[in-house]
Write a structure and sequence with these properties.
Strand content: 25-35%
Bound molecules: ligand EPZ
Helix content: 25-40%
Radius of gyration: 22 Å
Number of strands: 24
Shape: globular
Mean pLDDT: 95
Number of helices: 14
Strand order of the largest sheet: 22-23-1-24
Oligomer: single chain
Distance between the termini: 10 Å
Largest sheet: 4 strands, mixed
Amino acid sequence: MENREKEILIIKETKKLEGTVQISGAKNSALPNIAATILTDKPVILENIPELLDVRYMCTLLKEIGSSITQIDEKSWVFSLKEPSSLEAKYDIVSKMRASILVLGPMVARFGEAKVALPGGCPIGQRPIDMHIKALEKMGIKIEKEHGFIVAKGKPKGAHIVFDRVTVTGTENIIMAAVLAEGETVIENAALEPEVVDLTVLLKKMGADITWNWKGKSRTIKIRGVKKLNGAKHKIIPDRIEAGTFAILSALTDSSIIIKDYPENFLTYVNWIMRKMGIFIVKIGKNEVVVKKDKNLKPAFIETKEYPFFPTDLQAQFMTLLSVVDGLSIIKENIFENRFLHVPELNRLGANIKVQNNKVAIIDGVKKLTGAEVKATDLRASAAMVLAGVIAEGKTIIHDIYHLDRGYEKIDHKLKSIGVDVERKKVKQMLVKEV
Ligand code: EPZ
């Protein structure tokens, strides 16, 4: 038997938490913002960049294309791509991080060509990029698929794009393709997530001409192409998903941890759902909140939808909360076709959750979860396991925690700083050889 090392998280039940937790910059804002630095040969300074595996992957990708990336301070980086050294985003990075596809739009915009490995599927769904491709082709880009790569040629021209369904990175890719295009691009049924808006704030600082129009259901972005973009300095917005995760942790342990940089205005709908359950976000200072709760929480009915409604990226964490709320709760997952992988793991911890045709979860709240060995199946499901480990009786061991490091900056350090009994440990992974 050969052994390889892997890391696990060991979490023991922790009754009360206290102290302050600082919310980091948003992963899903940092990634498109870093990709946007491809659009100019001038230096771009990005601040509040979270230290995450996915950010390291994106920086590696940019370095391979020819970017020079230097750190100014713990959270600020300068990106500068004077001349490309390669126009290829290789499979080894793209296969690790689907958001690599975000280099496609800026590369064709600036260089008129790009070769990007087709991102594979991921645990939560097929994650096709057909809408990205169709929109780029409508902008006059010639796209071939060969040997697992997307080969794109041509400078984008302004076009009228209507997305069949809201796509976050699809919207971001087309915005970045359009900012240097000839003529005007209109994107209808655009994604309006705060992270998409944050990208347009950076692009406008760089000199892009972008306007939004959001009236009721109509969500339109208009981009008039400009000749060149300049450098800029921009601070990434706080991570609303990390913030929501810590708010749930505070409610689960009935603690009064102070959450710094809680982006209330990005979590309006989530805060409303929590209020209906008996969980209240109480402002105690500029962007500082504590979480208060009623003695007995009420069950909830949640449907994941595009922003500004309930975010799919908080679905798993909310399921942990509802698993110990007395009564029947329902979660309907509308965004991804396979985002209930955390259900069997929660049931191993003593939850009572049934899933109907992989779309609807029926959660019958139990009094207590009990510790067990579980595995993290995807980024947000791993956060759900951490939350469950803190309240489960005894000890919970979480395997495959690399998922966690992709999206939660220094998670064990933050948990320890508010009193969670958590330990990261390297263990031998027993690999059984063929007999
Ligand atoms: C972004 O993924 C986020 N990632 C995801 O966060 C998030 O869950 C998702 O948006 C939904 O909010 C980043 O921003 C880096 P979509 P994205 O395109 O852009 C289908 C996390 O945990 N679709 O909005 O890939 C797609 O399969 C991650 O941080 C097509 O069919 O999601 C999905 O069912 C997970 N064809 C739906 O649309 C396409 O061309 C929405 O996907 C594109 C998407």
